[in-house]
Amino acid sequence: MNKAQITGIGSHAPAREIPNSYFNEVLGEDVDTWLRENVNITTRYWCAEDESVADLCEVAAKKALSDAGLFAESIDLLIISTDTPEYISPSTASVIQDRLGLKNAGTFDLNTACAGFVTAMDVAAKYISADDRYQHILVIGGYAMSKYLNKEDKKTVTLFADGAGAVVMSAKDGNDGWLASDLRTEGKYNSWMGIYAGATHQPTNAQVLANHDHQLKFVHKFPKELNPKTWTEMTLDICKRIDKVPDDFDHYFITQLNFNSINETMDNLGVAREKAHMVMNKYGYTGSACIPMALDDAKAQGKLKSGDLIMFIGSGGGLAFAAAAVQY
């Protein structure tokens, strides 16, 4: 049976940089100190007015294809994880399939918010193991949340940013590649954070616009222990299933929103904090794109080597969680 292996990696951020100092001026208070000390964010990148999530996905995908040494015609399936799509319909994946000339690829979008990229990788891995027609699958995490931000809401506007990351997953013989995964959801939190207007439940109208319901909102504050607790449990569950211990892993790529939550998770697992590669200081929070962007950044720094064990852990609105163990 074929196993899915990561054979290409790429990422992209827009050119428009928004440093913390921008918000000091716009909001009229020092938010830079809080952002540095509490979430380790110093800057972020937003799309230009005429730039959208598909533009980011297109560049990241081209880089991943190049890294894999593949032509567009080699891709059998394209999966895009995003909760900031190009359109409500059709799918963002259909846009990218056309732009890249992926003429042999089926397509679909997947939305589990910021857990989406790891979830999409899991889906791709199962396609590869179940059907030998799927030899190369392109997985993209795209995020253009700046388009949905209330620029006067300091709880959201200072954290969220734009970007895209992509991997090519290819069918390979042997023991390397996809090892195990775990998907979980705490649906009771579905109304606590999100973009709640614009679809069928609450179509956009004047009242919606006045209340900013078409923009991202934190409705309630999440328990701070929720992510570290769940990330720890999922890691230990996967380790038990594949006969590993947490310290056997060379790298941890975890949702890049709060470095304290990441550090707490690493401490819970008894693993050196340095094994968790972080990029929120450079890119802000890029949602479904943050994990592949961190992966690409680690690769660019020469941290990845063949045979490395990697743990991916994503979480996002819903609340949705996804974790996976991969041998690179």
Structure commentary:
The protein has 328 residues and is an alpha/beta fold. 33% of the residues lie in helices and 25% in strands. It has eleven helices and 13 strands. A hairpin with a 3-residue loop joins strand 12 and strand 13. Helix 3 crosses helix 4 (92-100). The two termini are 18 Å apart.
Tally of structural domains: 2
Question: CATH class of the largest domain, please?
Answer: Alpha Beta
Tally of helical segments: 11
Share of helix, binned: 25-40%
Which homologous superfamily in CATH is the superfamily of the largest domain?
A: Thiolase/Chalcone synthase
Q: What gyration radius follows from the Cα positions, in whole Å?
A: 19 Å
Order of helices and strands: EEHHEHEHEHEHEEEHEHEHHHEE
Sheet with the most strands, sense and barrel status: 5 strands, mixed
Uncertain parts: none
| Envelope shape | globular
Total beta-strand segments: 13
Distance between the termini: 18 Å
Q: What would CATH call the architecture of the largest domain? A: 3-Layer(aba) Sandwich
Brief overview:
The protein has 328 residues and is an alpha/beta fold. The chain has helices at residues 20-27, 32-38, 53-68, 92-100, 116-130, 154-157, 206-211, 226-242, 259-269, 280-283, 290-300, and strands at residues 3-12, 16-19, 43-46, 77-81, 106-110, 136-144, 162-172, 177-185, 193-194, 217-218, 251-254, 309-316, 320-327.
Task: Please describe the structure with a list of short key phrases separated by commas or semicolons.
alpha/beta, 13 strands, Peroxisomal Thiolase, Chain A, domain 1, 2 domains, 11 helices, single chain, 5-stranded mixed sheet, 4-stranded mixed sheet, 328 residues
